[in-house]
Every structure is written in C-alpha cells, then in structure tokens.
Write a structure and sequence with these properties.
The chain contains 8 helices and 9 strands. The chain has 231 residues and is α/β, with parallel strands linked by helices. The chain has 2 domains: 134 residues, Type I PLP-dependent aspartate aminotransferase-like (Major domain) (Aspartate Aminotransferase, domain 2); 82 residues, Aspartate Aminotransferase, domain 1 (Alpha-Beta Complex), CATH 3.90.1150. Strands 1-4-5-6 form a 4-stranded mixed sheet. A hairpin with a 4-residue loop joins β7 and β8. α1 runs parallel beside α2. The termini are far apart. InterPro entries: Aminotrans_3, PyrdxlP-dep_Trfase, PyrdxlP-dep_Trfase_major, PyrdxlP-dep_Trfase_small. Its cofactor is pyridoxal 5'-phosphate.
C-alpha cells in the first residue's frame, strides 16, 4: 500500500481501511527522491497519531535526513517513530546500516538474555570495526555548531538559487531542508511525487549534464547536499 506524501486525509483513509493488513508504515520525514522535500509537520504528526491509535509500527528512514541535526528530523520536529533506520553519515564514508528504536521492539533482536533472539540478526559485516571507528570520528566532528553552519549555508544556497531562477525568468522551484537541496523545473509547488513528475524532467537532465561539464556533480535528479571539509 502506497500512501500519498503530504496528504493526511487520503493517508488516513488508507490506514483505517487496511488497518488489519498493515503491520508498519515506513516513511522518510524528508523525501530524498522528491528533491529532499520535507514532510509537512501536520502530515508527519498526523501519521504518528494515527499509527499510535491503530497500533501500527511507524518506521522512519533517516538515512539522509540524519544530516539536518544531531538527532535527525525526528528530534528537530519532535516526532518519535517506533524504529529508525540510519546509514551513510554514521559510517564515515564506509558502507553501513543501522537501526534502533523502542525497547520492546529492540529486545526481540537481543540474544544476550539467554537463548536465541526472537528475531535473529546475524550478518558478515555486523559491527565492522573499521566502519564503526570511522563513523565515530565523523559523529564526533558533527557538533551542534557544525550542523548550524551547514544548515545556514543550505538555507542561503536555496534562497540564492531561487533568486537566480526568478531573475532569469526560469520556471523553477527549489526544495530542501538543512544542507539538502533539490531543483524542480515547474510553476507549481512540489508537495508529492506526482507534482514532482509534472515538472520538466528534460530540463533537470540538461542541468545535470551541464553542471557535469563544469566539474559540478549533482544527483541526476538535480539534487545535492553541502558537506563539511573532506580530507
């Protein structure tokens, strides 16, 4: 079941109609495929309230939105999911994945209390020492001051890009939050996947290729992120 992003009424209808079939809702609080479009606070809060009411587990994918603050989008906006998936940043450039959440759910993976875990979670690369060491160094560098600087630069970049598009009379909409940004060639406000697709996709590809020729590499969907100095 696919719920429409930022549409609480339709999402509520789907959740209530199929509540007996749904074990969990998995969502990004900042939709990376939509040019890092942040979910409306009312939408995110509404989904949290509905999942609590209906007894459905809420899982946040914060693999990319973790970069907007020390606790990710959930801390920035005060919304607590039941489980959270993380990656990328926490690995210091090495392949990594992690998840955490409610104690009663995480205990199902814990074999340390004697006997086998309810849900086995073995893996060749689990707790890889090199990845964890690199990730620890990165997380130590990402102080609140560092996040503030990155987010301020991101806000400034999105504003400046929108000004340039407006001055050139190019129909474009710049989305994003924190140090993340996305560019859409459209006259309408981008709020979900459908409104994003109605934009000029050929222009996005042309921008991507044009910037590559100038030595600037964005994602092919004309999205990107600012970073700290990398050595």
């Amino acid at each position: 079941i696919v719920m429409p992003y930022n549409d609480l009424a339709k999402s509520e209808e789907l959740l209530r109609r199929h509540k007996s079939e749904i074990s969990c809702v998995i969502m990004e609080p900042v939709a990376s495929a939509l040019g890092y479009l942040p979910g409306d606070i009312e939408f995110l809060q509404g989904i949290r309230e509905l999942t609590l009411e209906l007894g459905i587990i809420l899982i946040y994918d914060e693999v990319q939105s973790f970069r907007i603050g020390p606790g990710g989008a959930q801390v920035e906006w005060g919304i607590n999911p039941d489980l959270t998936a993380l990656g990328k940043t926490i690995g210091g450039g090495f392949p990594v994945g992690a998840f955490g959440g409610r104690m009663d759910l995480m205990e199902m993976f814990d074999p340390s209390q004697g006997g086998a875990a309810t849900v086995p979670h073995a893996g060749t690369f689990n707790a890889n020492p090199m990845t964890l060491a690199a990730g620890q160094v990165v997380l130590e560098q990402l102080t609140p001051e560092c996040y503030d600087r990155l987010n301020s630069m991101g806000n400034d970049l999105r504003m400046r890009m929108q000004i340039v598009f407006d001055e050139l009379e190019v129909s474009a909409c710049v989305t994003g939050v924190g140090s993340l940004f996305g560019i859409h060639f459209t006259n309408e406000k981008v709020v979900d996947y459908r409104s994003m697709l109605r934009g000029d996709q050929d222009m996005r590809k042309a921008l991507f290729l044009g910037l590559v020729n100038e030595g600037v590499l964005l994602q092919i969907v004309s999205a990107g992120a600012l970073s700290t100095v990398t050595t």
